[in-house]
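Q: Predict the bound structure with magnesium ion.
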Amino acid sequence: MKLELLSIPGNVRLARVAVAAFVAEVDYNVSDLEEIKVAVSEAVSNAVTHGYQQKPDGVISITATLFAKSLEIVVQDQGKGIEDLEQAFEPTESSDPERMGLGFAFMRTFMDELNVVSESGQGTTVLMRKKLPGALQAES
Ligand SMILES: Nc1ncnc2c1ncn2[C@@H]1O[C@H](COP(=O)(O)OP(=O)(O)OP(=O)(O)O)[C@@H](O)[C@H]1O
Ligand SMILES: [Mg+2]
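A: Predicted complex:
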């Protein structure tokens, strides 16, 4: 699935619903599904709030791909970018004092892999991967 959404706050919900529909065929349990939805919401909400700084005409691209053993979700913006990634990853670290700074912590906790590439002024790409339920069973 590849979606392009404008950077308006209402589209955070649209992204979450679309990804949930995309993974409906996978037999994730309810809590896995919730985790995926939260991770997507956090990534898209970051693109809207921080990447495009509330400007509504930015484009956020969201791709979701099912591989043999994992679900991959990529959220990409061409916004402001992140100057100091290490600092941004610190839980409770936010460039906005009104925020909790927990978005990346949720993405990292809820997904099996989180990979962020960002360049100041160029934008941000967030890649997240979660094992499919079958892949989880195979390991345990
Ligand atoms: N897409 C992005 N573009 C630019 N900066 C970003 C982006 N995503 C995250 N950041 C930066 O990384 C910081 C940490 O992000 P994180 O989601 O963990 O916390 P937050 O968004 O500040 O707070 P919360 O997610 O709890 O509302 C942000 O404060 C912001 O400075
Ligand atoms: Mg956030």
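A: The radius of gyration is 15 Å.
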